Amino acid sequence: MKAPEDLRSHRWFGGDELRGFSHRARSRQLGYNPEEHLGKPVIAILNTWSDINPCHMHLRERAEQVKRGVWQAGGFPLEFPVATLSETFQKPTPMLYRNLLSMETEEILRSYPIDGTVLMGGCDKTTPALLMGAVSAGLPAIFVPAGPMLRGHWRNEVLGSGTDMWKYWDDKRAGLIGDAELSELERGLARSPGTCMTMGTASTMMSVAEVLGLTLPGAASIPAVDSAHHRMAAASGARVVDMVWEDLTITKILDKRAYADAITTVLALGGSTNAVIHLIAMAGRGRIPLSVDDFDAIARRVPVLADIRPGGVWLMEDFHYAGGLPGLLSRLTDLLHTDRVTVTGRPLGETLETARVHNDDVIRTRDNPVAAEGGVAVLRGNLAPSGAVIKHIAADPRLLVHTGPAVVFDDYRDLKKRINDPALGITEDSVLVLRGSGPLGGPGMPEYGMLPLPDHLLTKGVRDMVRVSDARMSGTSYGACVLHVAPESHVGGPLALVRDGDPITLDVPSRRLTLDVDDAELQHRREQWTTPPPRYERGYGALYSEHITQADEGCDFDFLARVGENPEPDAQ
Ligand code: FES
Ligand code: MG
């Protein structure tokens, strides 16, 4: 147990030096009396609320409930507005800014008199960004997931954000619905605050935060507007105060077992492939070795139990009523490390003892899984020496072993311009290749990985084809899409050397991705290849381009991921 003088904030507010005097005078200026905050844990509430972010629009108010909890437990709450990464509105992609928010998180926690933190967010990249920064800062930390929005509704149908947007847009293009229907859909697709309520990146990463042990049990799936979300926020604020006294830091919670359990959970949820990149980056900050191969190894023994869209039928709200993540995890205890400590201060297994599943359709039993094997496979071969990823449960099984001629697009613009060009001679056996879409080339690995099929094949009823890219894919997409090919084409990865007509072989059972062109010819092409000019000559884009790592390393900045001292500031 810590004493008040052991608090980090004591270095700012305690003592009889000039600095302590000055800091105390300034907290009077903030409007507080000494007894309200001196000797109490200072809790930073890092809030990613913004007027532009519909997924976090309730967090401004929800921070008040966190503060309520902090005060009640004898802490001193201070709210810090931090960058908002809105998956919908921020361009070219919030992935470009994940590391920026992680830096902001780390540096705010380091440079101010802070003893513990409550991290508030949930829209896609926000969760990994906040957690990466918190790991680097190393303080006691608790995560308050923004929570999913309510189910979408249109007429008598339940709608999933993302997935149904694409579906109805196709209906509109095909002339099946008109402007009136579309305008109704606009109002029904996303009808409350909160994150996407399908099993996209947001739901995946909020669930990751929970299974890692960084949220209160059951927090990840509470609908954003449910009163339970208010209570969870207050309880999280209260709990982090005790974590400070107990010195239960994030570093003590996150070990290799925690990351293994996170991978298990992502797979059992049929979660987003983006989790592969984020988990590697988060683990890297904690000096915990984690690689794409860990995913492949774990995927071979974890069944998919959550039947949630886009792969399945239900939505996050249904998942919550069915028992949420504790319910799901209670069916996987043999595959988890249940003796790990969580923010509760108790082992994960203790929470799971009382967890129940209330609907076996939404959270399947082990003998009736959605898929017997986890959804993600890691591929290697001369086209992806550092690995590539495929969510094979979302692909047409016919394509899982396939050889076809490449049709190459240099970037997304090229793809959009030429995909319907009859001169390309694309057949359903072709392999569509998109390059220039990786961490540097994209930049920020945009979610272009579900390459559109040409119209003439769609009309023929073709619904899936093998596609290969260095891009990512939205958690709400699917198809035989090979993603995250590393190294990317922009840095001269073999993807840069592919030419139209080259045979490419995808073989998921043997985890291979091969470009069937001989080495001498590839070497010849490599000699002709030139590095593209830098896209950014100044600014954050230049910093990003000079320091971003490849997908298999988590796309962190090299200077954030590396080992080394980052000294505590001298508060005096
Ligand atoms: Fe924010 Fe989907 S747009 S979670
Ligand atoms: Mg998304």
Automatic annotation (TrEMBL):
Residues making up the signal peptide according to the UniProt record? none
Return the Pfam families for the record.
Answer: ILV_EDD_C, ILVD_EDD_N
Q: Which PANTHER family match?
A: DIHYDROXY-ACID DEHYDRATASE, HYPOTHETICAL DIHYDROXYACID DEHYDRATASE (EUROFUNG)-RELATED
What is the E.C. number? 4.2.1.9
Q: Which UniProt keywords apply?
A: 2Fe-2S, Amino-acid biosynthesis, Branched-chain amino acid biosynthesis, Iron, Iron-sulfur, Lyase, Metal-binding
- Domain Dihydroxy-acid/6-phosphogluconate dehydratase N-terminal, first and last residues per copy: 40-350
Gene Ontology BP, a term = branched-chain amino acid biosynthetic process
Domain Dihydroxy-acid/6-phosphogluconate dehydratase C-terminal span(s) in chain numbering: 361-555
State the family named in the UniProt similarity comment for this chain.
Answer: Belongs to the IlvD/Edd family.
Q: Does the keyword Lyase apply?
A: yes
Q: Which organism is it from?
A: Amycolatopsis alba DSM 44262
Q: What InterPro entries would the database entry show?
A: Dihydro-acid_dehy_C, DiOHA_6PGluconate_deHydtase_CS, ILV_EDD_C, ILV_EDD_N, IlvD/EDD_N, Sugar_Degrad_Dehydratases
Q: Which SUPFAM superfamilies match?
A: IlvD/EDD N-terminal domain-like (SSF143975), LeuD/IlvD-like (SSF52016)
Q: One GO MF term, please?
A: dihydroxy-acid dehydratase activity
Q: What name is this protein filed under?
A: Dihydroxy-acid dehydratase
**Gene3D superfamilies reported for this sequence:** IlvD/EDD C-terminal domain-like
